[in-house]
């Protein structure tokens, strides 16, 4: 390059840094998750395999399931997304998860755009992307395991908020397609999973508040049409079968199962936020990681109050008055009154939706009975990350000298910077914990692959096994081995796909498969001791195979 070539001003180079760092952060987040997938982490299970079997049926043109096999709720969008992959490359857990990885990329990019829309601060948007690039064990399970609903809820939730902002702020261009897109995504989530409905309702309220008149015309018609198309599979299934999916969802919530209020509140408000938002080790939270449970309600209140004050301070017909400092937009973009009010309204909607999600989980039986695994119900809280962190960011960057009393004192700035640092640091440590669990997942997958190979070599095509064994085994073998579910007392269990049970029941040489040291293996060992001539035991690493004696 010539020494006389024009050089970009230092300010221009500085302004490009957030974009460059954002691309690197997105690449790091994708690379981290792809590395986990290649190491068979997070470990798969029979629920994910059920979605894989649905995708296989779709790819073969043999079945077109609307809902997760064995129930009348939770749409099979992940199966439909994976079916083309299976048609091209054959069924596999990796092929099932690749669409989920693509949905994660979409989520991060949309979250970056939403942060820019709400704040105009590219460095803050970078912070949001960095946090979302990290991923604890619970987070990567939600994002990568195609077990129904979780990978798609967050990108759709952010897209709804982004569309609500653009439409409410009056951004020109493609307005009718945007109305139709909002309706389609809202309807799609009604079919896929109701956990994101608080965000559908909150962002929809913003549209009604700001664009009520527009909704009475073609915009409202297109939104309604989009919603009908998005929820079409659910509506068609209900019309054909006469079943109400609402009743099934309420039954699945565990509302009729006992759980004490102390257990619910502890699981929902103390364990839930750190686990569900990615600040804990695999399957447990250390006491010091629970600090986020105290931070979340404070941040929700601060962000909500600041957004409400902005809505009241900014006139819709004139220039803004004194906007509260915690939600004052960055001076980088030109933000008029409509944009400022809309940003505050969308921020308030994100706060209300997060509060509703947290409250709904805290009063559920699942929070008290299974708080570790059920923390996945809080995965939608990541949609509200820009709203939660923005008050901290503005407080940390506020200057502490000058005539403006809103600039605050050094203690507030240090405290805000400390919380931001603790947030990133805790997420980094939790991510390291998830990386540390990958070798164990890879070893478990190798043991399962040996089980499949052994059954094939022995000519075993029909087996009985536990719920968490059956569909995983059937999917991993490409349906070479069909499995029917039994409980620990060898009684028939919950078969999600009934044809497998009929095929196994018709076999005269069905074997039994159980994880080593499981209650089912112990029960089969008792039968073997009582009737030693009925079964032949094959022992492999981690598994027990009981063949009918010949």
Question: Which terms would index this structure?
Answer:
550 residues; 5% strand; mainly alpha; single chain; 23 helices
Q: Describe the largest sheet.
A: 5 strands, mixed
Quote the distance from N terminus to C terminus.
81 Å
User: Low-confidence parts, pLDDT < 50 over ≥5 residues?
Assistant: 1-8, 318-337, 400-406
Strand portion, in percent?
A: under 5%
Radius of gyration: 26 Å
Describe this entry's structure for a reader.
The protein is mostly helical and 550 residues long. The protein is built from 23 helices and five strands. Strands 2-1-3-5-4 form a five-stranded mixed β-sheet, with helices on both faces. Strand 1, helix 21 and strand 2 form a beta-alpha-beta unit. The protein is globular and about 85 Å long. The N terminus is likely disordered.
Write the layout of secondary structure elements.
Blueprint: H1 10-38, H2 46-60, H3 77-89, H4 93-119, H5 122-133, H6 137-144, H7 150-168, H8 175-192, H9 197-210, H10 212-215, H11 218-230, H12 232-241, H13 245-252, H14 261-276, H15 291-313, H16 337-362, H17 365-369, H18 371-374, H19 385-397, H20 410-457, E1 462-465, H21 467-476, E2 482-485, H22 498-506, E3 511-515, H23 519-530, E4 535-540, E5 543-548
Parallel strand pairs: 1-2, 1-3
Antiparallel strand pairs: 3-5, 4-5
Structure in a nutshell:
The chain is mainly alpha-helical and 550 residues long. The protein has 23 helices and five strands. α19 runs antiparallel to α20.
